[in-house]
Write a structure and sequence with these properties.
Blueprint: E1 15-18, E2 24-27, E3 69-73, E4 79-84, E5 87-92, E6 100-107, E7 112-119, E8 124-128, E9 140-147, E10 155-156, E11 160-163
Antiparallel strand pairs: 1-2, 3-4, 4-5, 5-8, 6-7, 6-9, 9-10, 9-11
Length: 165
């Protein structure tokens, strides 16, 4: 396979740059897009193909933010919730003799459970909270119930309260 460049204003590559996936791309001397570096640098700002920063109508830089991570734990450390952006990972301690676990995640003021997970064995679950809760339904709580007798009640420990995302 070869590259053919018609005569005119097109630039021919001055070299090839290796990429981690073992593919190569031509290097035209000027970089465009996300890998362009030079001039004034605005951390996190998105670049247009011509190297200009993207601006909102109000003149602010259009940028991205890295998601921060927060961990919430109940009072006896039996249930932990790690939140990064809107993704929450619920992890709980294995209880000897447990036949199933019931994880409830809901909205505190209303007490309504929007996520209800019943599982016989695993002790972790990840969910996108934004799919289940709106901005006005923050913060949320998580409660874990443990069943030790088949058909018996799920008895729980203290909830994890005030989970924000």
């Amino acid at each position: 396979m070869s590259l053919t460049f018609p005569t005119g204003i097109q630039q021919k590559p001055s070299g090839l740059s290796g990429l981690p996936n073992r593919f190569s791309r031509p290097s035209f001397g000027t970089l465009y897009g996300f890998d362009a570096v030079g001039g004034d640098v605005v951390d996190g700002a998105l670049l247009a193909e011509n190297g200009d920063y993207l601006l909102t109508e109000s003149g602010d830089y259009l940028a991205f933010e890295t998601a921060s991570s927060t961990t919430y734990t109940n009072s006896n450390n039996s249930l932990t919730v790690g939140v990064t952006g809107t993704s929450a990972t619920f992890t709980w301690v294995t209880v000897s003799g447990a036949t199933s676990y019931r994880l409830l995640v809901g909205h505190l003021p209303t007490g309504t459970n929007y996520i209800h997970l019943l599982t016989p064995s695993f002790t972790t679950h990840t969910v996108d909270l934004a799919l289940h809760f709106s901005a006005v339904q923050k913060p949320v709580y998580a409660y874990l119930g443990v069943q030790t007798v088949v058909g018996g009640p799920h008895v729980g420990g203290p909830p994890v309260n005030n989970i924000n995302f």
